[in-house]
């Protein structure tokens, strides 16, 4: 079954470009387009896409609020949201991740990277690009805790190794990279990540990374 993709961007030319790239792939199908967040919600309900490629700044309803409604409680379908961003709008990306996005991608990313990101998100994983993640969280450190706040009680439910894994997830490392860092198997890392998500009540590793910063476990510039 092809992965059903909804394109959401207020620039028709960009939507056309994305459509051409995605429709060249045998396992991807563009099922619809929307020019703003309100249309996106309507299309998600009507078309039940697997992945929504979501712009941030749009008229009527921006991508952050649309993401919140698509992925929040009472949502109408299983759609995952992959946020599109440019460096001059990065301040919105952390908010989109908090709202429930499964990852983010630069608008000028290579076509192969766009295609792979959609596949990763559709599979239930998170698209957490290390280089962008660190730059974002470091740049907007002022919006995150200073580290002086009390550590959330939930963190005390994690084992020492699970805390190590959470810190490495916050750095944007993949399971393979974490395995190499800790000298364990990738399967072991997957198990630890699963335990972290379950114990903290988080959806995916993107939320885990944001949680690590918001809780003060990791401070921007020190991860």
TrEMBL record:
<dbReference type="InterPro" id="IPR011006">
    <property type="entry name" value="CheY-like_superfamily"/>
</dbReference>
<dbReference type="Pfam" id="PF00072">
    <property type="entry name" value="Response_reg"/>
</dbReference>
<keyword id="KW-0804">Transcription</keyword>
<protein>
    <submittedName>
        <fullName>Response regulator transcription factor</fullName>
    </submittedName>
</protein>
<keyword id="KW-0805">Transcription regulation</keyword>
<keyword id="KW-0238">DNA-binding</keyword>
<dbReference type="InterPro" id="IPR039420">
    <property type="entry name" value="WalR-like"/>
</dbReference>
<dbReference type="InterPro" id="IPR001789">
    <property type="entry name" value="Sig_transdc_resp-reg_receiver"/>
</dbReference>
<dbReference type="InterPro" id="IPR058245">
    <property type="entry name" value="NreC/VraR/RcsB-like_REC"/>
</dbReference>
<dbReference type="Pfam" id="PF00196">
    <property type="entry name" value="GerE"/>
</dbReference>
<feature type="domain" description="Response regulatory">
    <location>
        <begin position="4"/>
        <end position="122"/>
    </location>
</feature>
<dbReference type="InterPro" id="IPR016032">
    <property type="entry name" value="Sig_transdc_resp-reg_C-effctor"/>
</dbReference>
<dbReference type="InterPro" id="IPR000792">
    <property type="entry name" value="Tscrpt_reg_LuxR_C"/>
</dbReference>
<feature type="modified residue" description="4-aspartylphosphate">
    <location>
        <position position="55"/>
    </location>
</feature>
<feature type="domain" description="HTH luxR-type">
    <location>
        <begin position="151"/>
        <end position="216"/>
    </location>
</feature>
<keyword id="KW-0597">Phosphoprotein</keyword>
């Amino acid at each position: 079954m092809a992965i059903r993709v909804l394109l959401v961007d207020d620039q028709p030319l960009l939507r056309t470009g994305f459509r051409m790239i995605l429709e060249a792939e045998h396992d991807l199908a563009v099922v619809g387009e929307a020019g703003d967040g309100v249309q996106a919600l309507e299309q998600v309900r009507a078309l039940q896409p697997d992945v929504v490629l979501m712009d941030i700044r749009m008229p009527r309803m921006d991508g952050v609020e649309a993401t919140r409604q698509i992925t929040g409680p009472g949502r109408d379908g299983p759609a995952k949201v992959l946020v599109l961003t440019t460096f001059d709008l990065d301040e919105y990306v952390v908010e989109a991740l908090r709202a429930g996005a499964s990852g983010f991608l630069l608008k000028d990313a290579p076509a192969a990277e766009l295609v792979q990101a959609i596949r990763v998100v559709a599979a239930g994983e998170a698209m957490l690009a290390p280089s962008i993640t660190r730059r974002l969280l470091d740049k907007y450190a002022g919006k995150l805790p200073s580290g002086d706040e009390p550590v959330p009680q939930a963190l005390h439910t994690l084992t020492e190794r699970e805390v190590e894994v959470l810190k490495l997830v916050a750095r944007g490392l993949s399971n393979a990279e974490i395995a190499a860092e800790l000298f364990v198997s990738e399967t072991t890392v997957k198990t630890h990540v699963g335990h972290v998500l379950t114990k903290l009540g988080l959806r995916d590793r993107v939320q885990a990374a944001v949680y690590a910063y918001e809780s003060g476990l990791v401070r921007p510039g020190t991860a």
